[in-house]
Amino acid sequence: MKYSYFPGCTLRNKAKDLDDYARACAEKLGFFLEELTDWQCCGGVYPLGADEIASKLPSVRALNAAKENGQDLVAVCSACYHVLKRVNDDMANVADIQTRANNYMALPEPYMGETKVLHYLEVLRDVVGFENLKKQVVNPLTGRKIGAYYGCLLLRPSSVMAFDDPENPTILEDFIRALGAEPVIYPYRNECCGGYISIKEKEQAAALCQRITESAAGFQADCLVTACPLCKYNLSNNSELPVVYFTELLAEALGIKEVQE
Amino acid sequence: MNQVDEIKQISGVNPLKCMKCGKCSASCPSFYEMDIKPHQFVSYVINDDVQALANSRSAWKCLSCFACIERCPRNVQPGKLIDAARQILIRQRGQEGLSADEIPALLDEDMPQQLLMSAFRKYRR
What we know:
Order of helices and strands of chain B: HHHHHHHHH
Shape of chain B: globular
Number of helices of chain A: 11
Largest sheet of chain A: 4 strands, parallel
Number of helices of chain B: 9
Strand content of chain A: 5-15%
Number of strands of chain A: 8
Oligomer: heterodimer
Structural class of chain A: alpha/beta
CATH topology of the largest domain in chain A: Rossmann fold
Strand content of chain B: under 5%
Structural class of chain B: mainly alpha
CATH class of the largest domain in chain A: Alpha Beta
Distance between the termini of chain A: 34 Å
Shape of chain A: globular
CATH architecture of chain B: Orthogonal Bundle
Radius of gyration of chain B: 15 Å
Number of domains of chain B: 1
Helix content of chain A: 40-55%
CATH architecture of the largest domain in chain A: 3-Layer(aba) Sandwich
CATH topology of chain B: Fumarate Reductase Iron-sulfur Protein, Chain B, domain 2
Number of strands of chain B: 0
Strand order of the largest sheet of chain A: 2-1-3-4
């Protein structure tokens, strides 16, 4: 199985562990991520204004490139996935945006939201299957107690993201179980880390992050797992609790990365 | 265009659908940072007082976590109104929330590109 792949700005730079291990593990599990040529940054945040078009065009270009490749489009970063999926929903359902984006793009065939956008975790759950993943684990993470940190972007708004139950998600816990570790359920796993506000308002981000990490530590988590570079940055800056990318755990369990103690 | 029409056009929100249950404010992780709370945002738009929203701290305190949008039982989407209030500001020269001069001092080595991109989109045009 081959997918078009949108790595995004951070995975090429500060979040190489998210990108490198995603690619390596995909190969081991029998699917391939073909990076789109000439992709542009998604912008980091979905443009909420109904009249905004220019800031949605980088996503439209990526979505259309995947359509031309005849492939589903996979992202690993929570923010890229969020932005691509919401712009795709606009292109499928919002007449004004369809018209204006296509007028500007002047493609041989208009883009109308045909591409299916998937998060890497969805490929693991729905294509590979967690049962099958479990069978391929060579270094089970036995005895590790891991808290899933979902944050906002994977889950909300669920009417568009349709990723998992927005209030009681299970995909990361099922993933953790498949790798042989024990998932720790704690109440703040889908609360916001502060997001972009940490560039200026360090204290507010710190308060939000400490609430999350203290809750997880209180339920005996040894570490948190995330798919978002900004969540990792905010949480790591404000707590001693280790925060790792889900692809790092996957690579450890599949024997691609040295096991961390 | 007056500012009430502008905020409705940018947000695409119909504030009259609000039934004032307060779930948005109860869900908001920035509630204590905001002078005008998410549920009050809706009332200010209904009462044609967008200037108060543009002058409030709240427009800069919304994290775009989408909790209010997820949980609104009437699909009013208060977060979109708050973002539209911010858009009204940053679309005017001199009103942005992050000036070019202050950026270098805010950077550190671990900061992901995603944070810079997101902040530029939220605080500036």
